[in-house]
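# nightly structure sweep
# worker-07 picked up a monomer target from the shared queue
# config: single-sequence mode, recycle default, output format = structure tokens
# input follows
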Amino acid sequence: MHAVWVAEYFDCFRAKSLTFTKNFSMFRPLSVNIGMRYAGSSHGHLSLVTFVALAGLALSVSVLLFVQGVVAGFERELTNRILRVIPHVSVRARESIATSPELLQLIGGIPHVEGSAAVIEGQALLSSGQKVRGITITGIEPDQYRRVSRINQYVRGGDLIALNPGQYGIIVGDNLAKDLGLKIGSSATVVVPDVTVTPLGAFPRQKSFRVQGILDTGSQLDQRHVFLHRLDAAKLYRLSRGVHSIEVWLDDPLLAREVGLEILATLSDEFVVSTWFQTYGPLYSAIRAQKGMMLLLLSLLVAVASINLVSTLVMIVSERRGDIAILRTMGSNRSLIIATFVILGLAISAVGVAAGIGLGYFLGVLAEAGFPTLESLLGVKLMGEYVVDTLPFALASTDVWHVAGIAGLLTLLATLYPAWRASSSSPAEALQYE
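# output follows
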């Protein structure tokens, strides 16, 4: 009983759906109805040619979207991983800065400044066993430094709060820890270039530290950066209460140049102001320029696929010469024929563009997820020399619309010639052999 009722329900639903489709088709223009009917028909070799054109368009769109997503991924990683860790503006003096509390209060009152912190910076060597690496030391006060960096989100196995003065703990970058074979709790020796004179001779100053955390940002910062408490760094570099620089965090990193100039105008001439643009600015500009350039160059692939669409539509026009002649003899004007084949071409291209967007997204997600596996299989760190050592993929809605718009415009232009050729055909010549 239930099976009969379900069958009757689906039959009723199918009948209503067909009625709705027919009624909806009555309100569509005639050119749309004919064009969509041609798009859904199958004619042997024409179906194969149409499929090849669709495949070429989908492949070109997917490549374009994949490259755009990878470039956007690098831009995202640069913004999230690096600009969230490094301060945006640095204020340094020719010697050490002795009045850091007053300077922090002065800089904090400048617009767009969200936080500031006094740090000690220097170059040194880090040794473990027989291995030695050059490092950049940053001495911080954990509570204060959290105002100018989100580094705590990338510390593995520890926390900035764990850096207590007098305990001589350090946080080292992930790549640096792997090179030296360091783990949480391991001991390493920091050697600074200053020399200590003893009765036995001159020796470089050195101190043993214990690893309390691993910095894992997946970027170039993990290769040589070491963080320790500011008071421990002051003892290491023989600074009493002074610091080397004031680091500043902004609400918008892109305003670093303007804020840097304002800080420089506020302070005396003995200070030097630098921004993240001086270190990572060229890379950021190169990524932005490369994204536009790759969009322009890879759009040529879509143009080539559009040429294949032209040949497909020309073959369809030749196949449909009889239909075109009948429409013309029934009083249809040329604009109807042109609109019909333009809609046909746009329908074919819409399927190809949609398939290309889906394929491009799938390739991007697969490449990002499978890149670590590929590196482990090859035994090579493929991105080890770059700022970001992964293959990121970020697909923004604006990129999708740009790619779809370019593909739609090129395919629209590709449909104009076949549509014009269809409207120019003579009904008498087409029907004389029918």
